[in-house]
Structures are given as structure tokens and as C-alpha cells.
Design brief:
7 strands, Alpha-D-Glucose-1,6-Bisphosphate, Chain A, domain 4, 153 residues, 3 helices, alpha+beta
Length: 153
């Protein structure tokens, strides 16, 4: 099982971050390698990603299912690839630090199956923390940019 987590403090109220986070279509576009996604239902979607590690490239279709949303703090999800060789789960946890700041944490666990999974696990395991960090920073970017524009001079 591969595991990674990343936390980021933001100078934004929990309610502002939550409004963005509770609509998973907002953060789907922030996944590294994002190409497109399609809503199947309010809880199910298909994401198409293009991954690249060195000279190795791969297009991946992921099925993402929102398992639980607990306002204003938690989104839990499951993910699997089209061949059920990559299965995983994760969550976003949002906590309030003060009335004007919050912490966003993303946790992700992946299980890679089959011979290909065993071979690629060390590479993916080494890349996963950096990809998760980039993902959370991309989620925060439109929020912090919008916040900086809205502040009076």
C-alpha cells in the first residue's frame, strides 16, 4: 500500500475553502496530468489523466467516487483505474485555525495490483508525495489568487 499526505495552511476562512472544495469538479482540474473529466452522477465521475515519469508516459482513466461529504470539513473518496490494477482511497480534511485561516490536508492511499503494479510501485511511491503536494497547492492557488484580488489596498 502506497501512502502520502500533504497539509497546507491558508490565510482563508474555512468557509471560503469549503465552498470550493465541496464541488469536486473544482479540484478534479487540479490533478497533475489532468486532461478531462466527466460527471456520471453527483458522486461518480471519470477522470482522464496523462502521466509522465522520465521517458515513460501513460494515459490513465480513473473512476472517482465521492463516499462522504461532511460539511465543512471532510470529503472522502475512492479511486480505481479502468482495469482495477490501481485501487485507492483518500480524503480532504479542512480545519479552522482562526476566523481567517485554515489548514487543508489531503491523504491518499493506493494499492497497485499485478506484476506491473509490483514493478511500478517503487517509482510511483517515490513520486506520490510530490504529486500530492503539487495537487494541494494547485487547489489553493485559485482561492488565494481570488482572495488577493478582493483585498482592499
Amino acid at each position: 500500500m502506497l501512502k502520502a499526505d500533504y497539509s497546507m495552511d491558508m490565510n482563508l476562512p474555512q468557509s471560503d475553502v469549503w465552498r470550493y472544495l465541496e464541488d469536486w469538479s473544482n479540484w478534479a482540474k487540479q490533478v497533475p496530468g489532468y486532461q478531462t473529466h466527466k460527471n456520471i452522477s453527483p458522486t461518480d465521475s471519470i477522470w482522464e489523466l496523462h502521466g509522465k515519469a522520465g521517458s515513460i508516459t501513460k494515459d490513465v482513466k480513473l473512476y472517482v467516487k465521492i463516499i462522504e461529504i461532511t460539511s465543512p470539513s471532510t470529503v472522502q473518496f475512492r479511486v480505481r483505474d479502468s482495469e482495477d490494477r490501481c485501487l485507492g482511497s483518500g480524503c480532504f480534511e479542512l480545519s479552522q485555525l482562526s476566523s481567517r485561516s485554515s489548514t487543508l490536508t489531503c491523504l491518499l492511499e493506493l494499492e497497485l495490483k499485478g506484476l506491473t503494479g509490483k514493478i511500478s510501485a517503487p517509482l510511483i511511491g517515490s513520486l506520490l508525495p510530490g504529486l500530492l503536494e503539487k495537487f494541494v497547492q494547485r487547489i489553493a492557488k485559485p482561492l488565494t489568487e481570488a482572495d488577493s484580488v478582493a483585498l482592499p489596498l
